[in-house]
Amino acid sequence: MTVKNKKLGIIAGGGILPKLLIEHCLKNKRDFFVIAIENNADKAIFAPNVPHKWIRIGQAGTGFKIFAEQNVEEVIMIGTIHRPTLADLLPDLRTAAFFAKIGFKSLGDDGILRALVKEIETENFRVVGIHEVMPELLVKTGLLTKHKPDKQALADIERGTNVALTIGKLDVGQSVIVQQGLVLGVEGIEGTDELIKRCGTYQRSGVGGILVKLRKPQQDMRIDLPTIGTKTIEALHNAGMRGLAVHAGNALIADESEVIKLADKYGMFVLGIEPKGDAL
Fold first, then answer.
1. 270 — phi, psi (to 5°)?
2. Is 79 within 8 Å of 14 (Cβ atoms)?
3. What is the fold, at CATH topology level, of the domain defined by 138-273?
4. Where in the chain is the domain with CATH 3.40.50.20?
């Protein structure tokens, strides 16, 4: 359990989660400092009362120095990071040393993130997960919406779960889209929203597809948890899909009340599932 009086360092990418975490710290009077990643974090969330500095993704040395100067003890990495440009990735000496040590070209996303956690902790910071600070963001088990999955949807969820666990073990992605037993696509580097958009064009006639989004079996709970929000619901609706199943207790839901409200409006279901072993 995180001790609330320890100063929190937030490494902020894009999306709404950094904003929610900052608001939580302000509301609960928890001391914090934000390192905002250029070309990723939303400039609009950094009001005058939010202590922060901007860095490029390749400036790990600068980031460590800032946190040390700010007396940060615990660190959270939260928010999406887009594929960096060469200019973004141009490393400082500290980052270059990290890349050289881990042989990053041979690792998948999960492997790089796990190595990054270890590297942060060598600098005497403790890496914590958003679920330790804001457990209310974790997806609850069971049906969250008015609309329920029918028999076909449940079969598609089971199929998607098996596939998602398999690609997760291979460190490929977290999401799968299934329609009437057919796997329309699996998530790669493009991310969930692009996966949904792509698979929308592949759908056959009849009932729409289902998104299944799970934490990778070997994935550290402190980093890159599967996340859904209103943007996910809008993307599914625009693609003609009818619902999603997400990993209960192992994934995040941003603005839960708004997500449920929007899903109910569109006649979609949101289901928190608990995969056991290799399937539901």
1. -130, 125
2. yes
3. Cytidine Deaminase; domain 2 (3.40.140)
4. 8-133
- In the chain, which residues fall in CATH 3.40.140.80? 138-273
The CA distance from 124 to 136, in Å, is 28
Report CA-CA distances (Å) from 146 to 15, 120, 161. 26, 43, 22
Q: What CA–CA distance (Å, rounded) separates 92 from 13? A: 19
Per residue in 83-106, pLDDT (tens digit) is 656 555 566 666 666 666 656 555
CATH architecture classification, 8-133: 3-Layer(aba) Sandwich (3.40)
Instruction: Give 59-75 pLDDT, tens digit per residue.
Output: 888 889 999 999 999 99
Nearest to 101 by CA among 65, 60, 64, 66: 60
**Residue 219 DSSP one-character state:** -
Residue matched to tokens 């919406």: 145
Report d(CA 235, CA 197) in Å as an integer: 7
